[in-house]
Fold:
Amino acid sequence: MFKILITFFLFVFSSTLSNDNAHEFHLSNSELKYKESKDVIQLSIKIFIDDLESALAKRGVEGLFIGTEKESENSVQYVGEYISDVFQIMAGAELLEAEILGTELSEDLAALWCYVKFPIYDGCSEIKVSNTLLTEMFDDQKNILSFTTESGNRSYFTFDAGDKEKTFSCE
Structure:
């Protein structure tokens, strides 16, 4: 009986270890910085690659192999289009246009840093951020955002499926 129990636990334990692509939480981390001197808002998003590829596959974009030697030359374009759709910033009545600058693998190779800028042409007193990143995929998705200004003001917010918008002061 003891051997059967040990064999069962080893099987369960080894099968959880062999599932490299799965993780038990769905989280993104974003840093948003308002650079008044440069008339731009800079965004850095850290997102799990497997979750991002799943979201892109749901939109019909497959085979990107992000972070591998076989990575598609169009992967940054598709990632940028996705981020433009799910992460939006309004300054006053103006929807700011997202411009993807590039991507970079995280140190652990499980996540991707995405770099985006949003030019601002008429100044900024406050912004309204809409963040639905991966909420179409996972009910438990949490998107943590840190917003800073050049004057040193800092705000934090966690977006999820039920709380998708937040207004921040640019001052």
